[in-house]
DNA sequence: GGCGGAAACA
DNA sequence: TGTTTCCGCC
């Protein structure tokens, strides 16, 4: 049973994301990890390298890559055909997709894959890197897969590389680590070396840098805990119970202790300020990084304003902001909730992503065990070719009953406030709601795949605000400027606060504002009282639009049964997880799907939940 | 080349 | 579960 007061939205990662074995460096390395490893190594740049669009890479030497992979997995018979099959399985997982028209070219869905598991992202400046290298959002981002064990740290892959070298290395037994296929315990990352040496020198912090090429020229907002120490953030707790097999500095596994200072995804990292500060996720960054995308602060501001307004006006979940950097959702000042403990047990098992990063340095006690649960889930696989073809007709009658869910509340504060508040008047529908965003994603993908047939584009990713916000793309998130009602300049801060939603739950407006424009505008009611359209009315209009949108998007929503079924399944499972406090708390999260901002289609459901949330959040205002 | 079903495997 | 292997099809 889900705690009705807990409106926290969770993201759930797929099973594998929680498995330590799935982590790079583990003996169960997964192909995509391996690919990333290769990509981050210059030695392999002639075999595989970032190229083209953001996250796009080209396998220059399929045979070699296959060989390397085979070596890694002790599958001598591996070949590109097989490897590619494995890669194709990632399509459904949305980890990868094919760049159509380009041979051996694939693209990571970094927007959805936030490598949460590898919070060792260091914003250090990177050297020239292809624009496609961007898996990580911020500038000069390099991150490497942390070694699971000392031996792994030491193990190297130097041999793997060149064919010539390779052979000589075939049986190399890296220092202490086993890499002999015979015992099936090849543990070493064949690609570990160079980086290791370099990183090792720098100590723990430096040990985790260097994976992705730098891309953002500007100061990175990301700084999980690699690289320069963030004075505001507590450094990762010292390893408590070293996990031999864990690739993480701190075992994310429950029971291994020190769970609460896990690794937050860059996308999830939060500043220690009292506000929820969203750090850009890869997807976020891409917009600004994309070669095809240019964005100036003003535009961004505008966009964000619009978005803010949308969220604000329609009571969409503030988490929508999490898609954008520098957005702060100020929390109403109120006495510090005295429920940390409560909050905690609400989530049961130690949270994987504990909120070490959300702790407030200055805030002190309050921020302590902030239950800022994050859960991530990959989106449902996109429609298969078959399903797409067949399914297009069958439809999406149940568009409202999407299955996947992926959303999150990034605000621990919010959680706290919610917790500290009395029983909500509004019924919260976590599960169903959560899914809405997933659908959005699906929609994005399908649209892209079917309409544009252009994988090189933004690919159903929440890449760029522009892409999402300003583009005329059907997948555009919230109503944008083209919507009179949403015209930021017009109403952003003039919306009357009158959300008679949720059975009389007095709904105050959330103090949402852009960092750049602190507070004031957040005033629920326009000072001038201009253009105060009753929210009800607005909602009504919105509803109509939504309906229409839904109809239009019906086609897109025609997800194949498979997907849907899975989604529903997962949704249910997730639901129970949420109920029991978060289920797997390993916190070993590899990927994070950042759902795009809610789309109109989903506005209604989103709205519902958001309303609840906001209502709770501001009931005291 | 690329896709995806199916079955097998660990 | 995540491939690996095989294969027919486009």
Outline of the structure:
It is found in: Nucleus. By secondary structure, the chain is mainly alpha-helical.
Please describe what this structure looks like:
InterPro entries: Ets_dom, ETS_fam, WH-like_DNA-bd_sf, WH_DNA-bd_sf. The protein has a domain at about 15-115: Orthogonal Bundle (Arc Repressor Mutant, subunit A), CATH 1.10.10.10. About 35% of the residues lie in helices and about 5% in strands. It contains 18 helices and 7 strands. The strands form 2 sheets. It has a 4-stranded antiparallel beta sheet. A 3-stranded antiparallel beta sheet has the order 5-6-7, covered by helices on one side. A hairpin with a 6-residue loop joins strand 3 (about 95-100) and strand 4. Helix 13 (about 430-450) runs antiparallel to helix 17 and helix 16 (about 535-555) crosses helix 18. The two termini are about 30 Å apart. The model is unreliable at about 1-25, about 115-130, about 135-180, about 180-380 and about 385-620 (pLDDT under 50). The structure holds a DNA duplex (10 and 10 nucleotides).
Beta strand %: under 5%
Shape: globular
Q: Which regions are unreliable across 5 or more consecutive residues at pLDDT < 50?
A: 1-25, 116-128, 135-180, 182-381, 384-621
- Average pLDDT value? 43
Give me the CATH fold name of one domain.
Answer: Arc Repressor Mutant, subunit A
What's the Cα radius of gyration? 23 Å
Question: Helix count, per DSSP?
Answer: 18
Q: Major sheet: order of its strands?
A: 1-2-4-3
Work out the number of β strands. 7
CATH class of one domain: Mainly Alpha
| Helical proportion, percent range | 25-40%
Query: What's the CATH architecture name of one domain?
Result: Orthogonal Bundle
Ends distance: 29 Å
Query: At the fourth CATH level, what is the homologous superfamily of one domain?
Result: Winged helix-like DNA-binding domain superfamily/Winged helix DNA-binding domain
Largest sheet: 4 strands, antiparallel
């Amino acid at each position: 049973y889900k705690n009705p007061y807990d409106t926290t939205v969770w993201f759930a990662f797929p099973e594998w994301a929680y498995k330590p074995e799935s982590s790079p460096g583990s003996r169960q390395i997964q192909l995509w990890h391996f690919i990333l490893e290769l990509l981050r190594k210059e030695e392999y740049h002639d075999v595989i390298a970032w190229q083209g669009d953001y996250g796009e890479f080209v396998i220059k030497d399929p045979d070699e890559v296959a060989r390397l992979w085979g070596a890694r997995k002790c599958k001598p018979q591996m070949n590109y055909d097989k490897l590619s099959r494995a890669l194709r399985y990632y399509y459904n997982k949305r980890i990868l997709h094919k760049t159509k028209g380009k041979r051996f070219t694939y693209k990571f869905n970094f927007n959805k894959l936030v490598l949460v598991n590898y919070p060792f992202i260091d914003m250090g400046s990177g050297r020239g890197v292809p624009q496609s290298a961007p898996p990580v959002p911020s500038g000069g981002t390099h991150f490497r897969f942390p070694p699971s064990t000392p031996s792994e740290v030491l193990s190297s892959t130097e041999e793997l590389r060149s064919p010539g070298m390779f052979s000589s290395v075939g049986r190399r037994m890296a220092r202490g680590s086993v890499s002999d296929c015979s015992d099936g315990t090849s543990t070493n990352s064949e690609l570990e070396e160079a980086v290791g040496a370099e990183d090792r020198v720098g100590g723990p912090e430096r040990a985790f840098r260097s994976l992705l090429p730098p891309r953002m020229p500007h100061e990175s907002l990301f700084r999980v805990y690699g690289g320069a120490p963030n004075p505001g953030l507590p450094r990762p707790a010292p390893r408590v119970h070293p996990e031999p097999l864990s690739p993480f500095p701190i075992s994310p596994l429950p029971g291994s202790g020190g769970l609460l200072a896990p690794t937050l995804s860059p996308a999830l990292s939060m500043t220690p300020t009292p506000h929820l500060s969203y750090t850009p996720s890869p997807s976020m960054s891409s917009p600004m990084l994309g070669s095809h995308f240019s964005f100036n602060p003003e535009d961004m501001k505008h966009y964000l304003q619009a978005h803010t307004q949308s969220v604000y006006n329609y009571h969409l979940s503030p988490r929508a902001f999490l898609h954008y950097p520098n957005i702060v959702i100020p929390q109403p000042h109120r006495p510090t909730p005295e429920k940390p403990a409560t909050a905690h047990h609400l989530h049961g098992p130690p949270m994987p992503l504990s909120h070490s990063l959300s702790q407030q340095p200055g805030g002190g006690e309050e921020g302590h065990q902030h239950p800022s649960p994050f859960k991530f889930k990959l989106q449902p696989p996109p429609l298969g070719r078959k399903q797409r073809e067949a399914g297009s007709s069958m439809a999406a009658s149940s568009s409202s009953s999407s299955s996947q869910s992926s959303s999150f509340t990034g605000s621990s504060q919010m959680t706290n406030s919610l917790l500290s508040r009395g029983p909500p008047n509004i019924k919260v529908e976590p599960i169903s709601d959560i899914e809405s965003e997933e659908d959005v994603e699906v929609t994005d993908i399908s649209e892209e795949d079917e309409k544009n047939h252009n994988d090189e584009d933004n690919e159903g990713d929440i890449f760029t605000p522009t892409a999402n916000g300003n583009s005329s793309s059907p997948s555009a998130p919230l109503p944008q400027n083209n919507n009179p009602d949403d015209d930021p300049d017009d109403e952003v801060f003039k919306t009357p606060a009158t959300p008679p939603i949720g059975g009389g739950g007095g709904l105050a407006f959330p103090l949402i504002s852009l960092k750049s424009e602190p507070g004031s505008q957040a005033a629920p009611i326009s000072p001038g009282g201009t253009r105060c359209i009753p929210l009800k009315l607005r909602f009504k209009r919105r509803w109509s639009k939504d309906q229409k949108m839904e109809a239009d998007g019906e086609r897109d929503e025609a997800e194949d049964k498979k997907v849907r079924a899975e989604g529903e399944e997962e949704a249910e499972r997730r639901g129970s997880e949420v109920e029991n406090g978060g289920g797997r708390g390993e916190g070993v999260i590899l990927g994070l799907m950042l759902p795009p901002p809610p789309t109109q289609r989903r506005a209604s459901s989103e709205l519902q939940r958001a309303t609840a949330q906001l209502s709770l959040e501001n009931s005291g205002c």
